[in-house]
Amino acid sequence: MKTDGDLRTRLIEAATAMLTEHHALAVPSLRAVARACGVTAPAIYSHFDSVDALIAAVLEGGFTALEGAMQAADGLRAAAHAYVQWGLSNPGLYQLLFESADRLGIAPATETLTRTGVAAVQAQLGVTPSQAARLHERVWVSLHGIVSLRIHKAHYAWTTPVSQDVDDLMNLFLP
């Protein structure tokens, strides 16, 4: 005979399985996007043959905007601040680019952003390409942590302003 304790355990196990299962994002249909634009569904097909093509265009636009913000910055420290400010100013798009694109089965265009960043590190610090790649990756991981935590933990009582977090981080990596 099963007891209430057994049921409680089974409920916790089932809830754990459901909560930790890989979840797909709710992707709008092409029809829904067309409706939001006030056009018929066939009109959208002359621009995008699939929802994946539309999402790829959104990702491309997001990466272009982020890269533009960083390239407008003068130096690595300013580029780091630009990255964080862009992410916090565009939280939904930032999450789509860096936290959801892989789950959607669409490869994000991080390669271009990485190449640009590695080249900037190498040029400013005069290090080898492999050293620049390692440093760029460490800084990116840290900056992503700053942005992601600030987005997801907006109500947390942060002890420092975000600009100080970026400066403290960059002081660790830059001479």
TrEMBL record:
- Pfam family membership, one: TetR_C_33
Record has Transcription as a keyword: yes
Q: Report the DNA-binding ranges.
A: 29-48
The UniProt entry, under PANTHER family, shows: HTH-TYPE TRANSCRIPTIONAL REGULATOR BETI (PTHR30055:SF234), HTH-TYPE TRANSCRIPTIONAL REGULATOR RUTR (PTHR30055)
InterPro entries noted in UniProt: Homeodomain-like_sf, HTH-type_TetR-like_transc_reg, HTH_TetR, MT1864/Rv1816-like_C, Tet_transcr_reg_TetR-rel_C_sf
The record ties this protein, via Gene3D superfamilies, to: Tetracycline Repressor, domain 2
- Residues forming the HTH tetR-type domain are 5-66
What is the name listed in the Swiss-Prot or TrEMBL entry for this protein? TetR family transcriptional regulator
Please tell me whether the keyword Endoplasmic reticulum is annotated for this protein: no
**Organism listed in the record:** Winogradskya humida
Sorted keywords for this record are: DNA-binding, Transcription, Transcription regulation
